[in-house]
Fold:
Amino acid sequence: MSEQYEWICKLIKTVKECGIKIDLRYRDVKNKDEKGKWKSFEEAATALTKFYDRDRFPNEFVFDFDNDDEESNLQNIQKVEAVLKTESAPHFKNEYVNKEGKNGIHLHVIFRVSNEVLGKYNYDDLRLLLSDSILKKAGVDKKDSHFDVGLVKDKNHLVRELKANFPKEVPVWDICDNKFDELIKIVELQENLDDYLSYFDEDETEKNYLDIGIANGQLYYGKQTNGKSTILLDDRRVLRNNKRKIRDESGEYHLEGRDEIADFMDYGGNIGEIMPRWKNESIRAFLEGRTVDKNELYAKVRDTLDFYMDFGSDMEGALEVQVCWILGTYIYVIFNWFPHLLFHAPRESGKTKNAKLIMYLSFGGYKLGVSSAVTPATIWTTLDENRGTIILDEFERIEKSESQAIVNQLLNASAERDAYIIKLVQIGRKWTAVKFPIFSPKIVCNITGINITSLTRYIVFQLLKTLTEKGKKKPDKDKQNIMKIRDDLHILMLQHWKEIKDIYDNLQVSGLSNRNEDNWLSIIAVARWLGGDVEAKVMSYIENMREIVVDTGDVEGDFLYILYENLHDDVRTYSVKEVAEWCVGLLEHHTKDPQKWIGRKLSSYKCKKIRRGSGVFYELSKGKIKDRIDRYYPTKEPTQTTLHTQTTQITQTTQGNENTKNSEKSSVVSVVGECVGEAQSGEETTRQDLLNLIKSHLEESGDQTINYDLLALKCVDLGLPEDVFKNWLKEFKEKGLIGEPRHREYCLGGGWSG
Structure:
């Protein structure tokens, strides 16, 4: 009995054991050239018969690749075999020689599935599904690889004789239902792939807002014309939503007309009525071809600011920075980040006047009501349809104000282009999450300073009361003429915005920290586009900002400096209690639980924490704390004098090359760059002034007490830092000079002599 005959008998037996009734047919070798007749194996085959071709079994699929390149065929077979091994799918090889004398390889898989699967699929479908799933997993495209589908699909397809090395047993792939479902999904996904891909053919675009934006490579401004939303493009086209609701004879309402804006871009929202818009007269001139010269308009904006404002010799570059910021407001949507402005100065220093001038000249400038009444909802609902330049005047820092804390968070986030908040709004009977944009240019004016996180989002201007005639000049009287410049700025930016964007996209400036780079790149890009000495003046102002002192109420920098002074050079363990003893003067009025505060801060700065019994220790060294100071408060190595002061240094540039000046103020301040200050003198007189201040307020107001927040504002006018008067209030209470009948409410005590 030949091995070939014995092997085919084993095949037939195995297939029958899989529950399949078969009558295998074959062709013998003698008739291979004549394509001889097919014979029944059961009836005609003998142990001596040589088989050239045989039927493919119903539960058998065969992998055969018919490329002319034998190497390619072999690679495809190897890929398929690797997947079969991964899937634990038994199989056998059939090596043969074709009519052309070339070597070939078939991979055979005989499979068995459950009756449940057979109730859903016939064997013709199963062979196709299973072979396709293996090819997909192998990463072989049967179209490109000349896969012989006939070995799977056609009936009576010939299967070549084996040359040698018949397996001892016939391998069968028993496919459980879970594995079958997994393999079928692979094929179904591929079959539906074209449909799935078609769902995502459209280009993805962000929804645009109508007041200002970039769409399809064009800058546009929006306004209402005869009650209809209209946008003006930089190529002088005008698009309008001409849809209107009409009622037919049956009483039904329907829309007619065309929304040209929707044809141009996907948009949401409406055009609000709060921010001022581009004037019609100027728009008509633009549509008729009017252009403006950038140098002339730059000079006009600069001269207007210079006419009203006295920046003094120590604020070189302030004019140029403000002009660049004003121009930037007309194209702020092209920038990834656009900084806010902060005017921080004592009363009557020109903060409001300067802010108003910029408001009159900036894109859509308007005041956001009374700052004390500004709520988070005021900001996002107003900006939803009025994304112009907004001013928050007299935006004073109020301790422990939850509403202001949220407003500050919004201001912090809104310098970034993708900034928005999500709010639930009721549309009909359904509550829907709606995205409100909050990115827009913003100006803040205050006396009391700003929180330390917000400070890094601002370009700061610290003004002094002028002694020149400029102090008497009021821009409100010439408001209309000043605002005419705004109309030309619309035209200028529509003409040239792409030039500025190209500069911005490729701009690299050395010497700026990450946050400062965010703040300044847009301003420097406009300055570089303007040319001349504008960029040099802007860079000069960036350097000068190191000298600006802003009260932030932050003590973390002081805490790090105190650590640096007290730590050893080598790494040692320190208890939280020990560290707290170094910081008594710093933290006694800042937190009720100094040890807990210290633990949180050390953990946040990734200092290694160690527990010993009930105690908590941290591994610290001078080098580690110096690293944290360099990262968050980048100045030169702190001196002994600086370390003994309670000052916090925040740098808006990484340049800090001057020696830190001595400061003996016991205030908590933030210094933009380096700590600047002089030792106070006449302290007793100032204490008397504070007591006189409390007395005069109570007499004038008729109140029995004065609130802490109000007292803090009044102390600013005395030039008295908050931490100083906090300590003095405590001292006055201990001496009986004042009382505190209610928390943070103060009255005069019996121990004061006047």
Q: What stands out?
A: Confidence is low (pLDDT under 50) at residues 635-685.
